[in-house]
Design goal:
By secondary structure, this protein is α/β, with parallel strands linked by helices. The chain has a single domain, classed as Glycosidases (TIM Barrel, Alpha-Beta Barrel), CATH 3.20.20. It is built from 13 helices and 10 strands. It has an 8-stranded parallel barrel. It has a two-stranded antiparallel ribbon with strand order 7-8. β3, α6 and β4 form a beta-alpha-beta unit. The radius of gyration is 21 Å and the shape is globular.
């Protein structure tokens, strides 16, 4: 009799586990509410794709009707020589977005989006760690002082995924120095602080303890030298439930998607890969699947990653992704 009861409870437990897994993969946390979409925009990456950054940004604003941006204050562009600061590129981006009543989350520091992640000027490689950190703090001060009265900036993202060890050409993360950076920005300005984390490779707890808002990335299909193309089997519920847990444990105000994969992940630069290879991890069908997926997380806003590539791809004769993005812009 006892053996039968045990078997019954094991069977019941198995059914419950299967039901939970099925629920997790089918759950939709959007609750019928619209998601606000924005984009990350990098003039540096646009130039690497042999595009005119001004034309790309203008098209994003006027054709896609995007009004939420994540922009990058690249150190190597701003301070190409020690002590000489040039904000021309960043000024025109902010000016054009402000003309259309947009808003910007500005990424500041030395580790910023796009490879190699740490965008150091050439002269910074000759400095000691202490000297370089001092120059980074000076960069933060100069940048915030310059834009302190710029209303188009809604938040400061301090560095990009500062705790991530496995990606980018960067030194080992220095937790104490990063806390010093965040504390400095808080003293200089009262706009919200964003700390970003990997959606799949982090708990978000360290970010939640420092930030007003936590930004997370979501990647669906990646490539690495060990497995080749890799598909993350995580359901949208993973990100929503993780959000609720982090809010409970840290008291952070909000979690949003700072980087949603909408471009291919390759083993080489885009311009060196056949378009057929690029389509293996991103194409019009995958674009729509990713949009449907991210809506089900219930998180908003969502900053899409890859707008420069959509524009480049349209120039190669495939405007399907750009057209899908136009539809998103109209729904914003």
């Amino acid at each position: 009799m006892r053996i039968k009861i045990r078997k019954y409870f094991k069977f019941l437990l198995l059914i419950l586990v299967l039901y939970l897994v099925l629920w997790l993969y089918r759950a939709d946390f959007s609750q019928g509410q619209a998601v606000e979409f924005g984009v990350s925009f990098s003039p540096k990456y646009a130039s690497q794709l042999q595009l005119n950054p001004y034309q790309v940004l203008t098209a994003i604003l006027d054709e896609l009707k995007i009004r939420k941006f994540r922009l990058m204050a690249y150190w190597d562009e701003i301070e190409a020589s020690p002590g000489n600061y040039d904000y021309f590129n960043l000024d025109w981006q902010l000016r054009e977005i402000a003309k259309r009543q947009g808003e910007v989350s500005l990424v500041i520091g030395h580790r910023l989006p796009r490879w190699p992640e740490c965008h150091w000027p050439a002269w910074a490689y000759q400095l000691t760690d202490e000297q370089r950190q001092q120059k980074i703090l000076e960069l933060l001060i100069k940048t915030i002082q310059r834009y302190k009265d710029t209303s188009v900036i809604s938040s400061w993202q301090v560095e990009n995924e500062p705790y991530l060890r496995v990606f980018g050409e960067c030194p080992k993360p220095d937790t104490d120095f990063y806390k010093e950076e965040v504390a400095l920005v808080k003293r200089l300005d009262d706009r919200p602080i964003v700390v970003t984390e990997s959606g799949e490779l982090s708990t978000w707890l360290r970010a939640g303890r420092l930030a007003d808002w936590v930004g997370t990335s979501i990647y669906r299909i990646t490539w690495n030298k060990y497995f080749g193309y890799f598909y993350y089997p995580l359901p949208p519920a993973f990100y929503n439930l993780k959000t609720q847990l982090v809010k409970l444990l840290t008291g952070v105000n909000d979690v949003f998607i700072s980087e949603m994969q909408m471009e291919p992940w390759l083993d080489r630069p885009v311009v060196e890969a056949p378009i057929s290879e690029q389509y293996r991890s991103m194409n019009a069908d995958q674009f729509q699947k990713n949009i449907n997926y991210v809506k089900r997380t219930g998180l908003s806003p969502v900053y899409l990653w890859g707008v420069e590539w959509w524009y480049w791809l349209a120039g190669q004769g495939d405007a399907s992704l750009w057209q899908l993005a136009e539809q998103l812009g109209r729904s914003n």
